[in-house]
Amino acid sequence: TAPPFSQSHLLTPLESAPNPPLHTCSPPPNLILTMDEFLDPHSEYDEEEEERKYYRRKRLGVVKNVVAASTGGMITYSVYIGLLQMQLILHYDETYREVKYSSMGLEDIDSKMLMGINVTPIIGLLYTPVLIRFLGTKWMMFLASGIYALFVSTNFWERYYTLVPSAVAIGVAIVPLWASLGNYITRMAQQYYEFVNYNEKHVQEQKKIPKGACHRYIIIFQSVFYVIFHLCLVFAEFPMVFFLNNFLYDYNHTLFKVTECGASSQGYISGLNKTVLLHLPRSLLLIKVESVLMGAAFLAMIIFLVLCGAAYRPTEEIDLRSIGWGNIFQLPFKHLRDYRIRLLCPFFIYSGFETLFAVTGLIMSYGVCTLGLERLWALVMVYGLSASASSTLSLSFLCLPRLVPLLGGAVLHVLVLVGLMTWSPMPGNPSWEPLLLVLAALWGIGSALNKTGLSTLLGMLYEDKERLDFVYTIYHWWQAIAIFIVYLWSSLPMRAKISILLVTLLLSCLCYVLMEHRVMKKVPFRLPRIPRPRHKVKGYRYLEDDDSDESESEKSDEEDVESGEERDKDADGDGDADSQVSHLDLGEGGEMVRGCRRRRDDAYEQAGGME
């Protein structure tokens, strides 16, 4: 018979064998140390040091934004001024017009083109703030640089329907571009202050910056911007130096019929020869020069697009747009109620006058009329280099009163204008070149102090980031009106032009001193109330408790309303006597809520007396 069934018969030989000794496999000690370092808090991690490094990178990013915006503006205007100068000289030559374009009427096209550039900016006050707030500051700069690139591209096919519309487009873009640049540089100064003082409570809570806290950075950044930007007058002469100068007659031919220059002249240069080109440039060579300018214009667009960061946070951009397009349209006009900006308007006008007089008056009617067209590049380069180097003089705002830089530049211009009014050099006299170069350098110093001083002053007076685009729009709009007036007076005698400049400059200084006196006496000024942004209906923000971007004013409104509702419920649940007291408290609470709201609304209107 078979043996009884037992589990021992199922054991394999390996299992039935005696158990071998167990050897535990322990990890190597270096692996244990590595896991401990990975899981435990890093002993060498310094949170404060990492925070400092983070905000150091942020500050370097702000400096990069300022340099990029300045370089982009400089390249844009180098291309624009250089191409416009070359185009006007070529189109002025009678032989060039007849051979290349015969009966197309280039002179009429040029006059219409200049009219489009100078007249269109007059309506800039109507649309500039709307464009800036709709597109954003950075994208407005990018779009404006694209319009300048469009103007360059139209010169490949010179016709009425290409040149004139592109010139009108440039006139439309001038005021938005300059308002965006001024707004952007001032906003970068405010951001730099925030990244330097990141530990401050008002910075962490994103509250308003204390008055005068970021003046130092505004002064430095505006100086850096104009040091770089004024170099556009140097680079704009490269087409003249390396290309067009090889085709020009000397002064003996171009100034043969010119009889008077300087103070005794009328218009720009009366009697300038109609043929200024010794021989005509080849079309292929012109295309190469314009292609280089086109590439530079595209480079400026790429700089604005890639290297320039945003001027505002996304929620701040929403706030700027959420006040309503009607309010955005009206606020530039309402800001003119402030006596500070009204008294600065004559200075804005003079700033436009002196910019165009430097080219059409000093350089053309004095310089080119005396030295010839072949020395135009030297006068413009000296003027640009002087203005660039002298922009650093506005750093004197850091240690001197605000009056000194602006009035110093004005005094220098008065001295130059008085000298110009009494001087009429003889045409075709190269011996006056050193004196003319010195006059161009002195005018550049005054221009630098004027431009940098006004932009810095506006940034210091109007520190509220919600108002910067309106203020800079007013400034550059008055400049555009002044440039249009200079365009209209082109046929006046030179002494009449200088007299208008002197009267405007003296009036500007008087109004500016009066403004500073009122500010020193703390005379209340009037600023329009900027409405609070409304987001809930539009759905722009997350309104959950844990993930909310609501401003402090909106949260306080909700808390007041909720506290009032709770009081109402408590009053309904109590007895008659208690309910009367609760309703009385609710009424007082309601008055308190409404009073708080009124006070918050009034706080948005920043009056000088309240400060």
Automatic annotation (TrEMBL):
Gene Ontology biological process terms in this record: intracellular protein transport; toll-like receptor 3 signaling pathway; toll-like receptor 7 signaling pathway; toll-like receptor 9 signaling pathway; toll-like receptor signaling pathway
Residue ranges with Acidic residues bias: 544-563
Gene: UNC93B1
Subcellular location: Membrane
Organism of this sequence: Scleropages formosus (Asian bonytongue)
Transmembrane segments: 62-83, 113-132, 139-157, 163-185, 217-244, 292-312, 343-364, 376-398, 403-423, 435-458, 470-490, 496-515
Biased composition (Polar residues): 1-10
A GO MF term: Toll-like receptor binding
Upper lineage: Eukaryota, Metazoa, Chordata, Craniata, Vertebrata
Region of interest called Disordered, as start-end residue ranges on this chain: 1-23, 541-611
Keyword terms of this UniProt record: Membrane, Transmembrane, Transmembrane helix
InterPro entries: Ion_channel_UNC-93, UNC93B1
Membrane topology, record value: Multi-pass membrane protein
Protein name, entry field: Unc-93 homolog B1, TLR signaling regulator
Alphabetized PANTHER family for the sequence: PROTEIN UNC-93 HOMOLOG B1
A Gene Ontology cellular-component term: endosome
